[in-house]
Amino acid sequence: MLSVAGPHEKLIIGRDAHKSVVSGLILAGIVPIWVDPQWDPGLHLAHPPSADAFRAALAEHPDARGALVTAPTPYGTCSDLAGIVQVCHEHGLPLIVDEAWGAHLPFHPDLPAWAMDAGADICVTCVHKTGSGLEQGSVFHLQGNLIEPEVLKQRADLLGTTSPSVLMYAAVDGRRRQMVERGHALFGDALTLARETRARITAADGPRVHGHDDFCGPGRAADLDPLQVIVDISALGTTGYAVADWIREHHHVNLRLSDHRRSSAQLTHADNRDTADVLVAALEDAARHADRLRPARRVEVPDPAALRLEQVMLPRDAFFGRSEQVPWEKAAGRVCAEMLAPYPPGIPAALPGERLTTEVLRYLRGGVEAGMVVPDAADMDVTTIRVATEEP
Ligand SMILES: Cc1ncc(COP(=O)(O)O)c(C=O)c1O
Q: What is 304-388's CATH superfamily?
């Protein structure tokens, strides 16, 4: 982001961006032009924004310096990257892809296309998420001539330590070698395991596993990473948070991502039949004990139009400007001065510089009551909110 746009310059960004993207906005003083994700009202789930949405944003903001999209999303859904690349390149602008959840994509043709194959200019990917790196082992890939390697190097250097960890570098390099030598075979096995495990969870008469057809198609996602096993547990009459907590306590398994109606597990090339057995047994057991997980507090998820806040100040100005902590009931109408991002996945419901509404505040308060974690808030209970005291 720092190598594409400078202070007060515009970047077109899918609003389902991770908090780390918002950190980039804050540090760089970039003006975000938000593009809405595609909302599935039936599943209460946001899919990545469409290429047309980027086209419209670029037509309205021809002075933008580039665009950024998150793909895959933490749910494993992918955007039409080639389409978004085309739109950006028609304007001579670079596309940045936050491919945090896609470090494995290049290594098997049955996985969704990765950003570089789709023609993106730069992508950032977390080897520690879907690869075999140590935590913090993120890398970026650069191609084309829209971003100068020297500019990228100098600006990336601003964020790095001058004392890098040789362990981390060695792990990234080891992973590179592992993928070159055995990547195709390892992910071939992982894909087979994913197919079997998905079928076993569904056959167990338990919760439903979402597949390609649930998430992909016109107006929805372009593809789905089958290694993300997204389990809809709404039929159990409880929440994903309650199921994840129960499984952690009783089976010592950490599920990956939970929301008001889903929990998910991520399979990797390190999984095998034994680890899949643990997952299937844990989900079956949770289904058997569903009565103990009820009644789960309902989370009222307003429709996306109500959740969409107006950006009235630069994220940087709101974050670093004067602020005060006010009771949440009094925060509606005020400009947010902090990041309110339910974790995981860490997509901010409100970010610095957005004007808060009662709907968003109620959603966050209700979510916290039901088990949602909002770790970046100054008051993690979200009973008080940090808001700007000076407005433009
Ligand atoms: C979409 C997305 N982007 C970026 C990140 C940040 O990656 P890291 O945890 O390596 O800082 C995450 C982390 O969960 C993420 O989900």
A: Orn/Lys/Arg decarboxylase, C-terminal domain (3.90.100.10)
Compute the distance from residue 222 Cα to the ligand 1 centre, in Å.
21
| Ligand 1 centroid to residue 299 C-alpha, Å | 25
How far is the centre of ligand 1, averaged over its atoms, from the C-alpha of 75 (Å)? 13
Instruction: Let me know the angle formed at the C-alpha of 230 by 225 and 235, rounded to the nearest 5 degrees.
Output: 155
Q: Where in the chain is the domain with CATH 3.90.1150.150?
A: 183-293
Q: For domain 10-167, which CATH number applies: 3.90.1150.10, 3.40.640.10, 3.30.750.200, 3.40.50.10490?
A: 3.40.640.10
CA–centroid distance, residue 266 to ligand 1 (Å): 15
Radius of gyration of the chain, Cα coordinates, nearest whole angstrom = 21
Pocket of ligand 1 from Cβ distances under 6 Å: 18, 20, 70, 74, 98, 100, 126, 138, 345-346
Residue 388 Cα distances to 22, 320, 361, angstroms: 17, 9, 16
Ligand 1 pocket, mutate which of 13, 18, 19 (most atoms under 8 A from CB): 18
**Residue with CA at minimum distance from ligand 1 atom 6:** 20
Residue 205 has pLDDT above 70, yes or no: no
Using the atom order of ligand 1, give the atom closest to the CA of residue 135: 10
Count of C-beta atoms within a 10 Å radius of residue 298: 11
What spacing in Å lies between the alpha carbon of 390 and ligand 1's midpoint? 31
Instruction: Give CA–CA dist 200/185, Å, rounded.
Output: 23
Q: Please check whether residue 334 is in contact with residue 356, taking contact to mean a CB–CB distance below 8 angstroms.
A: yes
Q: What is the pLDDT of residues 334-386, one digit of tens each?
A: 999 999 988 767 788 999 999 999 999 998 998 898 778 899 999 999 999 99
Cβ proximity of 108 and 187 under 8 Å? yes
**Per-residue buried b or exposed e for 344-354, using 16+ beta carbons within 10 Å of the residue's own CB:** bbbbbbbbbbb
